[in-house]
Amino acid sequence: MALLNFRKREAAAPRGASAEVEAFLQGYSIEVMPRTAEKVEDFRALLPEGTRVYIAHIDGTPIEDMVATAKRLSSDGFQVMPHFPARIIRDKAMLGDWIARYQGEADVRQALVLAGGVSEPHGDFDSSMQLLETGLFGDAGFTRLHVAGHPEGNRDIDPDGGMANVTDALRWKQRFRDSSDAQMALATQFAFDADPIIAWADSLREAGIDIPVHIGIAGPAKLQTLIKFAIACGVGPSLKVLQKRAMDVSKLLLPYEPTEVIAKLAAHKAAHPDFNIENVHFFPLGGIKTNANWAIENGGNAARPADITAEKAKA
Q1: Which of 16, 33, 70, 91 is buried most, with the most CB atoms less than 10 Å from its CB?
Q2: Helices 259-271, 194-206: inter-axial angle, 10-degree rounding
């Protein structure tokens, strides 16, 4: 697919962003849903050329809407990464059909493979590992496969609140990565405190897991909105950051911005270049435009050159 007719987006000057933050934000990714994408007139006016855009597949969303969104974003020159939630995919035939549609209509070669948010599987699959084991992604020539990471654990996987089962699953994914031609990364749930994120990332390395991390960050939003999503998504100890903010009357009505958590992670990355967080992945809970503008204002004005080069080479 040729990347043609890009409209130049006017980059706003970073509002005092440090060089560390600016470097940390380069190559960030962002998530959309078909119904939210419909409200965006022109993504090229908001996002850097070549940005990776995940398309969240919520249970009940028709695959036709997912593919149409993927086609639009791909045509605009973005790297498209749709979700493949195992628990809403009935069987191998449905998985193969989705892959074929994305490839045939939107030239997709990337996927986020995850269990999904529903409690009861709709069919044969319960986990991302089962989807990967089908071999269909490899057969279709997918060049990049991301899987889920959980810096603060996941009680669906570890009901006791620990990390044992999550870590075992990551070791399986590491072995799969080592035997696959696809590039892999961990795309994580969002968190609000840098310290638990850093401790988790370091613990992966200690456990022998060196899959790069694309850390989930909630974009600017009203405090009430973030608390609602955080509770629904099972965010752990870092939820205290929001609860503490809610107790401060002077901040209660102000929108939350991820400035502090980004700054601390960026400073840690600058001081420890081998830190395994490779990219920032934004959850635009306060709106795509709001999140994109915040990223621009804080120095996130460009996709990494290697990302654009790889996408153009694919074309």
Answers
A1: 70
A2: 40
Q: How many domains does the chain have?
A: 1
- The Cα–Cα gap between 119 and 132 comes to 20
- Is residue 12, in this structure, part of any structural domain at all? no
Residue 59 tokens, joined: 């249970």
16 or 169, which is more confident?
A: 169
CA–CA dist 184, 132 (Å, integer):
12
Specify burial of residue 250 (Cβ count, 10 A radius: 0-12, 13-18, 19+).
Answer: exposed
Q: Write out the residue range of the structural domain in which residue 96 sits.
A: 19-314
* Confidence tier at 17 by pLDDT (50, 70, 90): low
Query: Does residue 140 form part of some domain?
Result: yes
Question: What pTM value is reported for the model?
Answer: 0.85
CATH number of the domain to which 37 belongs:
3.20.20.220
* For residues 287-306, average pLDDT: 82
Share above pLDDT 90 across residues of the chain, in percent, rounded to a whole number: 67
Residue with tokens 């040729």: 2
